[in-house]
Amino acid sequence: MKRIKAKGIKMVIFEPAMKEADFFKSEVISDLAEFKKISDIIIANRWNEELYDVKEKVYTRDMYGRD
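User: That's the sequence. What structure does it adopt?
Assistant: Structure tokens below.
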């Protein structure tokens, strides 16, 4: 996060369980549909079928099926 933000890129975090409105000065969104709509790129820890409709935006360690 620090490296991305240092480049001046706005980050938005999707976390449905989080009650705070921000995390390290980045907006937190709990609505997945809204998050998908506003995101240009989605960096995810793991692939999830809920991301299938925006797969062209998703980068994850699972994307090459090696993990």
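The helical segments are 2-6, 32-38.
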